[in-house]
Amino acid sequence: MFVRKAILDVTDTIATRSRDSRRDYLDRLDTAREAGVNRSVLSCGNLAHGFAACSPTEKAALAGNKSLNLGIVTSYNDMLSAHQPYQLYPDLIKEAARASGATAQVAGGVPAMCDGVTQGQPGMDLSLFSRDVIAMSTAIALSHNMFDAAVFLGVCDKIVPGLLIGALSFGHLPGIFIPAGPMTSGLPNDEKSRVRQLYAEGKVGRAELLESESKSYHSPGTCTFYGTANSNQMLMEIMGLHLPGSSFVNPGTPLRDELTREATRRALLLTAQGDDYTPIGHIVDEKAIVNGLVGLLATGGSTNHTMHLVAMAAAAGIQITWQDMSELSDVVPLLARVYPNGAADVNHFHSAGGMGFLIRELLESGYLHEDVRTVWGSGLSNYTVEAKLLDGELSFEPAPVQSGNPKVLATASTAFSQNGGLKLLRGNLGSAVIKVSAVKPENRIVKAHARIFHSQQELQDAFKSGDLNGDVVAVVRFQGPRAVGMPELHKLTPPLGVLQDRGFKVALLTDGRMSGASGKVPAVIHVTPEAIDGGAISKIRDGDLISIDANAGTLMFVGDEHEFEARLPAVEDLHRERQGMGRELFVGFRALVGSADRGASIFG
Fold this sequence. Notes:
Blueprint lengths: L4 H13 L1 H17 L8 H8 L4 H8 L5 E6 L14 H11 L3 E7 L5 H4 L8 H16 L6 E5 L5 H10 L6 E4 L10 H12 L5 H11 L11 H11 L15 H16 L10 H4 L2 H13 L6 H11 L6 H8 L16 H6 L2 H11 L8 E2 L2 E2 L6 E6 L2 E6 L23 E6 L2 E6 L9 E9 L2 H9 L7 E5 L16 H9 L4 E5 L12 E6 L16 E5 L4 E5 L2 H6 L20 H6 L12
Parallel strand pairs: 1-2, 1-3, 3-4, 11-12, 12-13, 13-14
Antiparallel strand pairs: 5-6, 7-8, 9-10, 10-14, 11-15, 15-16
Helix pairs in contact: 5-12, 7-8, 8-15, 9-10, 9-20, 11-14
């Protein structure tokens, strides 16, 4: 199956850049494999601790080293809708493992926080850092070295990236990610957005807003818009770490449960004791990473992954850059329109043909590498299917030839756009990214005077007082990873959306995040270097003329550049923003964290 030259060129660039680091990673993986699972060499006291809570039959099996033992790493909690379904997964997994003559144990849990709950709250300052905490928690869970393979239960924003980073530190083990699926469709997302803007204008009250939000987020499962959580699921499938067709099956359904059982059986078949040893560190290679990037661009996925994918790849010894993403974005067509890039939600996407249709279109058009290893065998063409239950049996049927809804899911020949959903911006203000798939073409170029804010609340106060009433580039700075942990700034969308609807030219410019819910207002985010490091964003003053051109990929201060360069960076007292709600515990993280374009990681 042919692959376009532009895709091959980026892949070759990544492979060349990563040659030494990837070789070192694979050497570590081989060393760990040769050392093997330690059950046979654990002391009697060690092993007794490892199976003390097991049944007599399980203890007998685990006392030797031949019976397979599956580790379960779970992000279950029952406060978050996306992770609540995982409550029953360990029992399903253990039952399926027993039926296969193996055992399974919950190796450990990882934290799972919700950006939807912490949005605009102090706890949001911990959100990005939770990814690396999850990675470390995953490593701790697997460090008992009792397991021949692992399954990972996670869905949302930082959870899947953190789980994968942790899993790759045990890359000699086979690993499968098992999703929980999206909640069923509730209040349409565009209606939810409309009510939010009405609330921002003071035209409806809190009761009406809460009613709207509750009708949108209404049951167990992932939020249905195409934010980071659902971008995660797309990535795990297109990178070959999910079972085919499993990403967007609703929770609590017979098909969902059978996919979980099958993932368990499959994980046990991939161990070093079998004939199809497939460690996760071999699956996640340069081609798989490029496939993930192509999928992200073709679906208009979350801008968070301009950081997460960098960090995930690095965990496998692979070095990717924003430039790689930009070059792919120039050639990868946009094939999906899911809110905020359209009116549909992920259930509509799945019904229209979903991942099987998308992967087939991208493969046949030369945008993906077919010759990759996956948890379902060699070759990504194994994923051009739909998962179904036929007479109670799990079956994988070819994805439909035609889209069930061309307004939601297009063919490569009828793409919504010939370019991907993300764009890299560069200029005398630094580097940044923008999600253009949700921004109308007429709003992608903004030239306006700056207004400086150092918090979301400052901007909201200015809007409510009527002080924002014209063309504006709203500069919200000191929001980067080293400053306060890089919170998402979604509370800015409604007021800026109101200004744009009034006919003004509006843009957001920030060293913070907006994530997958970046909407109709052009949001220039992840500005690097960030303000606290003396980046150019720290030198902007009220009234400066700023030019943003998402088509040309430029981000510029317009004026006397020598005078601009000579300015002293603004200084912000951040002490009050670093205390309380657990933030004081992350002093070390803020000191270690790298820049956004390096993955905003503490791991170097």
